[in-house]
Specification:
7 helices, seven-stranded parallel beta sheet
């Protein structure tokens, strides 16, 4: 069978081009995840854009409309373990060059009380941990075979300076559940990096900076970064990652971030 015919069959079956690289992004219907999906699609990558909504989000429908041969929308709630396994089975024949664990929650910055000492809402801790730490770990475990089968073999997780023990700058008050869940994520990914290094898989953490996302509205303050700049920087970092970087954490500008 001639190669052009094989390529045509691949596109017909998967909707993806045979020679493009593939990225899977969790939580890609808004904010950082959506910008990742936009920029990778614009670069010609095949994008598996996941979300946890009951219906396909308008943002992803619009992106697929712009890149119909590159964007594939899939439902994935990172707290739904059977759903993660089911999607991994569904995509069993799809090598994933870059897996981006982006889905996460920060809490309502306009109402800091549930994460502030003295008014801590302890019933919220488990939700933060399941979404920000356990979810990415499960997604990574389920899709590790897909990454191993790819050319690039890269797994990244979006962390935060808020989860760093080694940061020596001023500590912002509150944020107990967010900070501890990101610190837990850091250790999970550091462990995974050690386990997958022998398979040639690079596992790193990325810190996006304080990014202006939709839920912030018109709020502005010094150091706030536009999504386009943060994600362009992180993609550049991902492009340059090698196996020697596995287990490390980098800021969006490529500088190392302490754990």
């Amino acid at each position: 069978m001639r190669l052009p015919l094989l390529a045509a069959m691949f596109v017909a079956l998967t909707g993806f081009t045979a020679d493009a690289k593939t990225v899977l992004i969790t939580g890609s219907n808004s904010g950082i995840g959506l910008e990742f999906a936009k920029q990778y699609a614009a670069r010609g990558w095949d994008v598996i854009a996941t979300h946890r909504r009951d219906d396909e989000p308008d943002t992803l429908i619009a992106l697929r409309g712009e890149y119909p041969d590159q964007v594939r929308i899939e439902t994935l709630d990172v707290t739904n373990l059977p759903q993660i396994d089911a999607l991994a089975v569904k995509l069993a024949d799809t090598p994933i060059d870059v897996l981006i664990n982006n889905a996460g929650i920060t809490g309502d910055f306009r109402n800091p009380a549930p994460q502030s000492f003295g008014t801590l809402a302890y019933d919220q801790w488990e939700n933060f941990m399941r979404i920000n730490a356990l979810g990415p770990l499960k997604v990574t475990e389920a899709f590790a075979p897909h990454v191993k089968a790819s050319e690039d073999k890269k797994i990244v997780a979006v962390s935060s300076l808020a989860g760093s023990f080694g940061f020596r700058g001023p500590n912002m008050p509150g944020g107990y559940w967010y900070k501890t869940s990101k610190a837990t994520l850091n250790m999970y990914m550091k462990n995974v990096a050690s386990d997958l290094k022998a398979d040639g898989v690079t596992v790193t953490l990325l810190s996006p900076g304080t990014v202006r996302v939709e839920k912030m509205g018109d709020v502005s303050f010094p150091g706030l970064i536009e999504p386009e700049d943060s994600i362009a920087g992180m993609i550049s970092v991902i492009d340059g990652l090698t196996l020697e970087d596995s287990g490390a954490c980098y800021r969006y500008d490529g500088t190392p971030q302490p754990f």
